[in-house]
Amino acid sequence: MRIVFRSCLVFVSQLALWICVASAQLGNSGSIEGVVKDPSGGVVANATVEITNPVSGFTRQTTTGSDGNFRFTNVPFNPYHLTVTAGGFANYASDVEVRSTVPAKADVSLKVGTSVTSVTVQANAEDLLENDPSFHTDVDTSLTDRMPLESQSSSVSSLVTLATPGVVADSNGLFHGLGDHAENSFSVDGQPITDQQSKVFSNQIPLDSIQSLEAVSGGPPAEYGDKTSLVIKVTTRSGLGVKPATGSISTSYGSFGSVTGAFRVAYGTDKWGNFLAANGLNTSRFLDPPQLHAIHDKGNEENIFDRVDFQLSKADTIHTNFQYTRSWFQTPNTIDNLNLGIPDPVTGLPLPPADQRALIKTYNIAPVWTRLISSNTLFTLGAFVRPDQFNYYPSGNVFADGTGFIPGGSSATLNQNRKLTNAGLRSDLSYVKGVHNIKVGGTFQHTFLTEDFNFGITDPNFLPSQNDAAGNPCFVNNIALASPCTDLLPFDLTRNGRLFPFHGHTDVKELALYAQDTITEGNWAFNLGIRFDLYRGIVHDWQPEPRVGVAYNIKKTNSVLRVSYSRVLETPFNENLILASVGAANPVITDVIGGQSLQSPIRSGQRNQFNAGFQQAIGKYAVVDADYLWKYTHNAYDFSTFGNTPIFFPIAWKSSKIDGPSVRVSMPNFHGLTALVVLAHVRARYFPPQIGGLGTTLAGGEVFRIDHDQAFNQTTHIQYQPYKNLPWIGFNWRYDSGLVASNPNLDNFDHASSFLDANQQTTIGLFCVDAGGVMHTATLSSPLALGAGTICGANPLRTGAKLINIAGATFDVDHNPTRVKPRNLFDVSVGDDNLFRADRYKWSLRFTVINLTNKTALYNFLSTFSGTHFVTPRSYNAELGFHF
Q1: Whole-model pTM?
Q2: What is the largest CA-CA distance in the chain?
Q3: What is the pLDDT of residues 708-736, one digit of tens each?
C-alpha cells in the first residue's frame, strides 16, 4: 500500500504543472443538446426550447440557431421536462434526465399544427418523482432569491438549514447534518471541501455565486467520502452564452447598523463566459452572542467570486473558479467580560472590558479541463488550492481577557495563528451507454497544517486554589510545592510568567479512488460503487468502502421505494488537529484547557450507514419524500470550546449511534403559490469514554445525548406571487424542540443554582416559587440558591428557568437530558422585482423581517462543546437593487 501511495504522489506531482496551465470544468452539472427538425427532416430555426424541474424550480429557456441546434450548459443533475414551441408547429413535450457530465441528447421532431408562440408548462405526477436510491433535496435560485435568511454572513448555512430535512440549526452558521457535528462536505463544481465552513472557522462561498445546490442526506455515492452525513453539491453561476450582459447592483440597510453592498454580472458568448460577484457586509451583530443584547460584536466581511469558462472546441472546455473572502469580527462579551470593578492584578487600576478579535482570510483557485472523447464518454481533470488563515488576537491588556476559560471560572489570555492550505488534483472518466452511467475517478489532497497557539494565566487566585494529586494545596506561603503548580507557574502572568508557546506543523495526505455505476433498467435503479480511501496524517488509515443503493418506481401509484448501504471512512477534523492530538499529552495544556491527558492522537472513524425511504407524488400538486437512517460509528467526533472564544478543539468518543426519520414535502408552483416543508426527528447517542482530543469529558461512563441531539424540528417555507408583474411574499416558520444542554452541572435546579453565577442565572431566567406561592427570578444583584435561609427556602413549590428545561429529579443523560426550551421562529420577506414595470432595466425593492415575533431563545447554553449563544432577535432589512 505504501508503494502504491508513493507512486500516486509521483504521478500527481508530474501532472500538477501541466494542469495548472490548461485546466477546467464541472462535476455537479451537465448539459442538454439537440436539434429541432420539421416532419421532412429540415431544421427549424428560432424555435423556443424550455427545460424545467417543478420540484427545484429550475427553469431555463433558449432558441434554436439557424442550424436548428440548441444547447443548455451548466444544468444541475436532475430530471427535466422539455418543451418546444415554434410558429406553425404543434407543441412538443418530453422528459430528459441529466445524470452525468456527458451531454444528454434531446433531438426533437415537430409536427405541423396550430401556430403558437408560448406554452404553459404544467407538471404531471410522474414529473415530480426521481428514481434515485439516494435521498436528497434540490434547491434553485427561484427559492434562494426569495427565502428570508437569518444570517447575512453565513447565508449558505442558513439556506441549507432551512431547506434540508434533518439539519439542526446551531450558532454562527454551524449546522448539524443528520445528527452529526460538522460531518458535512461541500462539492463546489466538483471541488471537494470537507473543512468546516462556519464563520468562526472559515469563510463560505458567497450565496450570490450559487445557481443551485443539491443536499444529499441519504446514502452517498462512491465519489463522495470523508464527511458524508450531508453532501452539499453546489453548481455555481456561469456567464457562458449570456449576451447581452446581465447583472445587478444592490445595497441594503437593517438592524444593528447592518449595511451591505453587492454587485454581480454575467456576460459571454457561445465560446466563453465570465460570472463575477462581489459583496460586503458591516454589522454590529456579526456573531451570535452569549448575551441577549450583543456586547462588543462588530464585524465585517468582503467576498469576491469569479468564474471563467472557455469552450476551446466542440470537445474541450476550460472552467476556473476564483474566490477571495476576508472576515474580521470581535468576540462578543458577556457582562462578566466587562470586568466591572475588577482591578488589574499588576497595577491595581480598573481593568478595561475584554477586547478579543479574529481575522479569517480564505482564497480559492480551482481550474478544471474537460474533454469529450466521444458522444458518450467525457474525461475531466481538475486542480484546486484553498489557503485558509485564522488569526485570533487577545485584548490590548491581557489581564482583561474574560473569565471562564480555565475550568472553575478562572481566566487566561490566548492568541492563535492557524493556517490550513488544502491543495489537490481530481480526475474522472464518465461513460453513459444504454442502462449504464459509469464513473471512475480519483482525488488526491495534500493539506498543510500550521498551528501557533499561546496562552497565559491571568487570574492570581487560580494556582493557589489548586491541589496536587494527593489533594494537598499546591501553594503554601505563596510557594508552589508540586505539580500541577510547578508545571503552570512559569505561565502565570500575575507572577511574572510568560506565555506558553505551542507550535505545530504537519501534512495530511489523502488519496481516494472510486468506481460507480448507476444502472437504470425498467422500473429499477441501482447505485453500485466501491471507494478506497488512504489517509496519511498524524495517524495512518485506509479502508475499502462499498456503497450500494436500490430504488423501484411503482408507476401505477406514482411511488418510488429505495434502500441503501454505505461504508465510510471518516477522517479527523483539521481545525486545531495538531494541538488536540499532540498537545493532549502535555499536562500544562490539559490543566488549562481541560480534559484528560490522552496519549493517543485522534484516529479515523469507521461508519456503517443504512437508509430506507420512499417518494410519493400526490397528483401533480405535491410530492412527499421520506427517509429513515441508521448510522453506527466507531470513533465518533465532536468539538469542545475554549471559554466563549471562537476557538474549538476536536475530540473523539468511543462510538455513536444515530437514527431517525427525515421528511420533505414539496409543492410545485400552483397559480403563483409554492411551498416546501421539511421535518425530522434524529437521535444522537454517544458512548464514552472520550478517546482523543482536548476538552472536558462528561461525568459518568454511560451513553449520553450529544448537544446536537434534537427531538424534533421542522421548517415550512411558502412563497406567493399571484401574477408575474406583482409583488411577492416569502414566509418561513421554523420550529426547534431544543438542543441538549450538555453541561453536567445543569441536571437539576440545586446544582444549577450553585454552579451558575448571577449573570448566567439571569441569562436563562432562573426562578423559584417559595412556599407562599411567590415567584422569584434571578437578577444580577440577587442570584438564587436553595437551602435554609435562602429566598425560596429548602423546599420551594416550583423551580425552573425560562429559557432551558432543567430535567430535575427525572434527569437522565440518555433518556431525559436537560434541554434548551423549544422555539417557534417566523420570518417574512416582501418584494417587488420590477418596481417601474420596465422591460430592460429594472429596479427591485425587498423588505425582510427575521424573528417576526421577537422570540427570546437560545441555540445552546454553557455547552461543553459550543458554549452559549442566543438566536437573532427581531431584525429588519431593506434592500434596493438595480438589474440590467
Answers
A1: 0.90
A2: 105
A3: 899 999 999 999 999 988 999 999 999 99
